[in-house]
Amino acid sequence: MSISQTQRSSVSISRLRAELSGHVIGPYDGEYDSGRTVFYGGFDRRPIAIVKAADDGDVSRVVTLAAEADLELAIRSGGHSLAGHGVSDGGIVLDLSEMTGLQIDPTGRTAWAQAGLTAGDYTAAAHTHGLATGFGDTGSVGIGGITLGGGIGFLTRKHGLTIDSLLAADLVTADGETHRADSENHPDLFWAIRGGGGNFGVVTRFHYRLHEVGTVVGGVLILPATPDNILSFVAAAEAAPEELTTIANVMKAPPMPFLPEGLIGRPVIFGMLVNVGPVEAGERAVAPFRGLDEPIADMVRPMPYPEIFMEEEGAEEFHPLAAARTMFIDDLDGAVAETIVGELEASTAAMAVTQIRVLGGAMAQVPVEDTAFAHRRRGMLVNVAALYESPDAAGKHEVWTDRLTAAIRRESRGAYSGFLGDEGEDRIREAYPPPTWDRLVAVKHRYDPNNLFRLNQNIPSVLPDVTDESSA
Fold first, then answer.
1. pLDDT digits over 25-55, tens only?
2. Which of 40, 54, 230, 370 could cysteine-pair with 22, CB 3.0–4.6 Å?
């Protein structure tokens, strides 16, 4: 899509550069293409301007401009949205990646972090004090998106979701004003941003609780992907102490230096394990997984916590197309495990995977109504994905993904907003049960009545009609 003259005239690049402290990129600048590129491929969107904000003042001015000019506004932290929400077509991209300030209080075990930080950078800095906040499982992900969605990662069973360690946040709302949201100030807003995504404003800083996490027992354990091994892996994860969090990626073995060539392309369980606490206890916790079958590769060992974030070589050039679905389920039986293996073998995608995360532990101990993330009692989060290269192949991979998703979820409902793509309102509603949805709509109406913040898993800003029967 080309940018029209009318769109260009609504925003003056030179004026933006004069008024803002941060870096402004226009359509004719050499950095434009890289600035509009997000992690996933298939998004050829052309914003009028990309603003790499330097501070809260820049954020406020861009938000105000977008509201006054009725421009689409994309908020970008790490750029990992499956729906491409980090880039606009004909609007403004507000890029927070240069807002990376971090203040750690090791005595009080808290940290103020600007929203442009990545999970890996934050984790490495906190580790110098033997501390950590739980984010996801990928170091290049921005802390902004993962926090606002809830945050399911390597420390979930021991320390809860990322939002369970969130103490406060500073955010710019649609009127351009900056607010501190916490349990005492704007508590409705604080509730909503803990799971409700970027619907309510632009968070510029987060105040997190830090936990004592130094050496962990963790790493990659690769096992043959038989139906029995999948069920046994899940059962072992459910029986494990809450200090242990696992991720089972059931996939075709990718080319890796430590894997035999004859194994490449065969189904494996690419397991990720992280145990927080004493090393001896960690070794006991991972032992049942090592005993499930003869490991193809066993790289589980004591390590500094930041090392669990795997190296992402070539990540800047890697922009896969993806057909992906997310769901919460409460059980997994033999028939489903057989289907997973069979569909995996049938897939022609460059990478096909069913990811199973057993939940519980600290995540489930927080009352459901305390945050906008409301799936705390669910047993497992399962993600199905096919990564491919040719846009012409999208149809068959979408069909494969939908077929396998239907077989796994059966009658179950529920979705994690952080892993949703562009799947429509019904799927967004699955992320929020009715009481949560209604409360989110009310908060949205209060803070963003015109739905300026709509490039997200969108909560409508219009309150439902209520008929007064007494006057009917």
1. 999 999 999 999 999 988 999 999 999 999 9
2. 54
